[in-house]
Amino acid sequence: MAPLRAAMALQGWWIGLSEARVRVGDHRWAYDTREAAEPGAPTVVLVHGFTGSKENWYPLAERLGGHYRLVIPDLPGWGESQRIAGADYGFLAQADRLAQFLKGIQRDGSPIVLVGHSMGGGIVALVAADHPDLVARVALIDAAGVRFRDNRFGEEVLAGGNPFAVSDEASLQRYLDTVFNDRASQPPLPWPVSRAVIDWRIAQAPFEQQVLNRIGRSSERFLPGEAASAIRQPALLLWCRQDKVIDISAMALYAAKMPQAMQVSLNGCGHMSIMERPDDVAASIALLIQRGTAR
């Protein structure tokens, strides 16, 4: 994975991101950051999903330009952030860690806009509900944490499997086809990069299963949706209609708890809206910042 990580780091540098490290509690966090053109601009914090990393946000980061201060972390246990054997990486534990991280990076005069995708959306919902003093605005994008309409992905999770598991070229392509609606939007993974990704995912399989057991099958799997009723900040809900992971029916479930939320549904994209439709996602976040209203 080293050559691939080097290529991704180069991409981050190209769009003006700087790498940073910080220890919060018992974990070392890796994150990317970029200052805004104006010192009082909002701080937009982008939180990735299951099997994801901070690099998933690069297309969106590029389009947000210098309008906002950006902070894009790898959640503990994922990407380049620290993983501790035996630690809990479920919704509640990660929400507590993220809140502590936000306290460390917050800046007077720069309100935090907290944006979460998929698993990260569930974590973000908990933080926004429990820490209104930290989070000024919140966006949930294809977010986990509610009992959406049954689909193949959800059924496999409930049966104890990992629909994202990768063990060979065929399962890697199946994974990409699950999260992306259009193959043209999938990141190119020519051999030997594909082989490195497969080997990496095989090594990560026990950890992925551990996390999925917590966020997909334990008693805390629907806590983000329950907590959403306490979110009173200006909010955005954004989904793709062709999401084969978190069905779009989840958006209505969150909206019922968050009547103040702006709702955006996009056509022609899947679970990775942040990579397939970054222009639309960036415009929606800008609208949240400019016009969002509290409950």
Layout of secondary structure:
Layout: H1 2-14, E1 18-24, E2 27-34, E3 43-47, H2 58-64, E4 69-73, H3 91-105, E5 112-117, H4 119-130, E6 135-141, H5 152-158, H6 169-179, H7 193-217, H8 223-227, E7 235-240, H9 249-257, E8 262-266, H10 273-276, H11 278-291
Parallel strand pairs: 3-4, 3-5, 5-6, 6-7, 7-8
Antiparallel strand pairs: 1-2, 2-4
What does this structure look like?
The chain has 295 residues and is of the alpha/beta class. It contains eleven helices and eight strands. It has an eight-stranded mixed sheet with strand order 1-2-4-3-5-6-7-8, sandwiched between helices. Helix 2 (58-64) crosses helix 11 (278-291). The protein is globular, with a radius of gyration of 18 Å. The model has no long low-confidence stretch (mean pLDDT 95).
Q: What is Rg?
A: 18 Å
Please outline the major beta sheet: 8 strands, mixed
For the termini, the CA-CA separation is: 45 Å
Helix content: 40-55%
* Number of E strands: 8
Uncertain runs are none
Helix/strand class: alpha/beta
Q: Give the overall shape, derived from the CA principal axes.
A: globular
**Within the largest sheet, what's the order of strands?**
1-2-4-3-5-6-7-8
Reading the helices and strands in chain order gives: HEEEHEHEHEHHHHEHEHH
